[in-house]
# Entry
Amino acid sequence: MEFQNKVAVVTGGATGIGRATTLALLRGGATVVVAGHRREELDQLLATTESYRDRLSTFLVDVADDDQVAEMYASFSQRYDRLDILVNCAGVFAAGSIEQISSAEWRRCFEVNVNGIWRSSKAAIPIMRKGGGGSIVNVASVAAQCARRGMAAYAATKGAITSLTHAMAIDHAEERIRVNAVSPGTIDTPFLRGAWSHLSPVEADAQLQAIAASQPLGRLGTAEDIANVIAFLCSEQAAFVTGADWVVDGGLLARLGVPLPHVRP
# Structure
């Protein structure tokens, strides 16, 4: 129960990687507040976690909205006097090159993926400071380091997240607030399936089977694979870890993309 008596906020915590992280923290004994922008997903989370009901609450929040984020943290502060963990997992995908994507889609991608982290962290850090410190984990992506066609906005936001993580870590190290990023590779989640539906006309299962076969470890990642690393970074086991970007991609970035003809596969 390494998170017993700890209080956490997880944005985007009702589905995919965020949901797996919420469950990992709950299993570790934490009290978790989940922010999500779809009521049905929040209700489903509550319906499937009844054994944790005394330590789990939800807020309907769009992290792209200043007022909604401020209202959530105001309500949070009325109920809790400390905040130990913040996981910024809320994110959206926008397909297209910079010529193809609309201004509205570009802005929305940045408002959620980057500015959402800024809004939530700005509100969370004063609470963490009063409690003597804490841990923030920002969910980035391997797209910060490499990209596929048709994902210019998404890749740009993920690059911004890794740079923002470095800056936050330096700014708040003296306050004992650790800030790290996790960069998932190809993880089988509803988010990934939705993104691929915009990038290719091929049916999602067929795409993902082909991608899994091409991975160095021979499979796709799971939401739990990422949640385990996030939980580690939130724990005291990572007490000397800050300002880092943890790539969790099954070896994807380690392999040279162009095979050499004289080397056996």
User: Anything to note?
Assistant: The radius of gyration is 18 Å. The chain has a mean pLDDT of 92. The domain at 7-250 is CATH 3.40.50.720 (Rossmann fold). DSSP finds nine helices and seven strands in the chain.
